[in-house]
Amino acid sequence: MGIPDRIILTLYTVLMAVVAVFIVLFALQIISPTTVYAFAATIPGRWEYAVGGVILLLVSLRLLVTGLGGTGVSTLLLGDDKDGRIVVSKNAVEDYVAQLTNDIYGVHNAKAVAKMADSVLNLRINASIEPAINIPDTTDEMKQVIRKNVFSTLGVEVKDVEVFFKHIQQKK
Questions:
Q1: What is the Cα 70 distance to its own chain's centre?
Q2: Which residues cross the membrane (predicted)?
Q3: Which domains does the chain have, with CATH numbers?
Q4: pLDDT band for position 162 (50/70/90)?
């Protein structure tokens, strides 16, 4: 889930919390039914409420699609010809790249994110590295190992490998 979706989810959650408090106050008769009816009577004919309702509907649909996994690609198409398609799970590629990365001396807790565009693979790796390990040399080694092994296994060129070290700490 991306940052915009997280912001939308946060705002939506706050709105639903306000609605829940309102329902509790109404159920406990702290807010009288006449107050609710008076408010409801002001809604017809007001374009502001219609716009708010449409926005709330769109946000709900966006969160539903995101929650069901309708955004993003879960498979990567490796080949497509008259004999059929070759498809591999995005998770399988990410797990494989993370395993390759974790096998490099001094690197641990690696996680990978794969994106396929125009028959080339782009990777982002988040990992931890141990102190006293040369980061530029290790990063170069990671890129070479990943490019070589992914090409030999999947037959796909790795265009970009972005490495992000989250922690410099000993392996636990």
A1: 11
A2: 7-31, 51-78
A3: 3-67 (no CATH), 75-168 (3.30.300.20)
A4: very high
